[in-house]
């Protein structure tokens, strides 16, 4: 598996299952490349953890991807992108693997959000970590200074989804509570970004509690388009990545559990192996 001369996949990382919603879109858009998906399920959720903890966990996983031969790793996790990416890119990579690259999901989303909103009032739903980092407000402000960002932490959604309770009455209670709190901040919000890769599984429920005319955006296709564009612009990286159309899935927790739940997120069969980090 670590035949690093022939097998140079793109690494896709999430704290758990959520990154599979992004990977689904990436695999549809770019089916020829090899991929490795890693879910750090044994330590998920990351959403309420400190900057240091999210950085340490994410860096450990990034090093694991590099050891498998991945020259490029996508953090398909908003929490890791918000709390670990910058430090990894600026402080860690130059020492551990200067030629490798680690990309996140926040910047590609911030770059295109202006296309969706007419009122220039955008709502962000994410984990406590993503919201408290203020990353979306800062990144969107760089590209679209005329957009006002309203943010709502939704700490119960990932645990509900990870525990298979996202279609329950309990999920409805929390979804409504978070949606109401977000819209109470501004009645003119016309676009809501699901800034957590788990949330596509509750997208229909979120829509159920929204007035008509508010657009809800998931990140999968945005990140997939951005990756395609990145590879087009970075031929030195694109030419390194192996193209056998093979994906391998790994979890730091129980593979049987991962395969069952992961298939829901991936929208396809998942067969994973356990990895101890
Ligand atoms: N899917 C991750 C995200 O996008 C989840 C977070 C978690 O582990 O709390 O933020």
Plain-language structure description:
By secondary structure, this protein is α/β, with parallel strands linked by helices. It folds into 2 domains: 10-104 and 221-274, 3-Layer(aba) Sandwich (Rossmann fold), CATH 3.40.50.1860; 107-218, Rossmann fold (3-Layer(aba) Sandwich), CATH 3.40.50.1860. The protein contains 13 helices and 10 strands. Strands 4-3-1-2-9-10 form a 6-stranded parallel beta sheet, with helices on both faces. Helix 13 links the parallel strand 9 (247-251) and strand 10. The longest helix is centred in the first third of the chain and has 17 residues, at 51-67. The chain is globular and about 55 Å long. Bound molecules: D-glutamic acid.
Structure characteristics:
four-stranded parallel beta sheet; 277 residues; 13 helices; alpha/beta; Rossmann fold; binds D-glutamic acid; globular
Distinct bound molecules = D-glutamic acid
How many domains?
2
- Per CATH, the class of the largest domain reads Alpha Beta
Shape: globular
CATH architecture heading of the largest domain? 3-Layer(aba) Sandwich
**Could you give the count of β-strands?**
10
Report low-confidence residues grouped into runs of 5 or more.
none
For the record, give the distance between the C-alpha atoms at the N and C termini, rounded to a whole number: 16 Å
What's the average pLDDT? 95
Strand content bin: 15-25%
| Count of alpha and pi helical runs | 13
What's the order of the H and E elements? EHEHEHHEHEHHEHHEHEHHEHE
Physical arrangement of strands within the biggest beta sheet: 4-3-1-2-9-10
- Label the structural class: alpha/beta
Predict the CATH topology of the largest domain: Rossmann fold
Helical content stands at: 40-55%
């Amino acid at each position: 598996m670590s035949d690093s001369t022939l097998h140079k996949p793109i690494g896709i990382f999430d704290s758990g299952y959520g990154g599979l919603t992004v990977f689904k879109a990436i695999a549809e858009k770019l089916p020829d490349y090899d991929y490795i998906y890693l879910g750090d399920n044994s330590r998920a959720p990351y959403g309420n953890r400190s900057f240091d903890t999210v950085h340490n966990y994410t860096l450990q996983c990034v090093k694991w991807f590099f050891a498998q031969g991945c020259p490029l790793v996508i953090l398909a996790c908003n929490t890791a992108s918000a709390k670990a990416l910058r430090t990894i890119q600026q402080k860690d990579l130059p020492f551990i693997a200067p030629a490798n690259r680690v990309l996140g999901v926040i910047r590609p989303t911030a770059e295109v959000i202006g296309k969706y909103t007419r009122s220039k009032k955008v709502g962000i739903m994410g984990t406590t970590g993503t919201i408290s980092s203020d990353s979306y407000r800062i990144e969107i402000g760089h590209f679209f200074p005329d957009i006002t960002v309203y943010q709502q932490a939704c700490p119960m959604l990932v645990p509900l989804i990870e525990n298979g309770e996202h279609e329950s009455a309990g999920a409805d209670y929390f979804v409504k509570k978070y949606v109401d709190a977000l819209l109470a901040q501004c009645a003119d919000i016309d676009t809501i970004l699901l800034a957590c890769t788990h949330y596509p599984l509750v997208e229909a429920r979120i829509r159920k509690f929204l007035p008509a005319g508010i657009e809800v955006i998931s990140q999968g296709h945005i990140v997939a388009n951005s990756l395609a564009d990145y590879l087009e612009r970075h031929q030195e990286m694109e030419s390194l990545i192996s193209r056998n159309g093979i994906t391998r899935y790994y979890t730091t927790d129980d593979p049987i559990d991962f395969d069952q739940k992961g298939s829901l997120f991936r929208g396809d069969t998942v067969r994973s192996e356990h990895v101890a980090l």
